[in-house]
Amino acid sequence: MLPSSPVVIGAAAVIVLLVLLVVVRRLRAPSSDARESKRAHDAAQERDPPVALGETYEFGVTELTDHHSGEEVAVGKVEGFVLFTEDIPGDVGKGDVIRAKVLSFNEGRTSADATYVGKA
User: Fold this and answer.
1) How far apart are CA 35 and CA 81, in angstroms?
2) How is domain 55-119 classified at the architecture level of CATH?
């Protein structure tokens, strides 16, 4: 027979609500990948860029994407630092190794815009 005391029923209801709250929080929490990405982003904002304005760097293209300017750009990394390379010819694709000259940094200095110099 189940207890019908209002105190026992109230205590059981509170326990059920606490368990549901814990389950919902776990389901809504960021994934471990999202937490790692946030940690890496925060660390990137604290370090000096490994590239210098006006210098040319060689790197592999990790993806092609649309830039805010509307043109397609090649994305790649130099020591984990992201470069968005403009003025790429049509034959450049993912996996190609290219050279690009750094033109400017973004506001947080966590990435830079560059211009295509040639294939490596």
Assistant:
1) 19
2) Beta Barrel (2.40)
Q: How far apart are CA 120 and CA 116, in angstroms?
A: 11
pTM: 0.65
Task: Give the Cα separation of 22 and 26 in Å (integer).
Answer: 6
| CB-based burial, 85-103: b 16+ in 10 Å, e otherwise | bbebeeebeeebebebebe
| 58-87 pLDDT per residue, tens | 999 999 998 777 889 999 999 989 999 999
Q: Where are the domains of the chain?
A: 6-45, 55-119
Greatest C-alpha distance within the chain: 81
- Six token digits for residue 45: 């904002």
In the chain, DSSP assigns E strands to 56-66, 72-78, 81-86, 97-105, 111-119
Structure tokens at 74: 């090649």
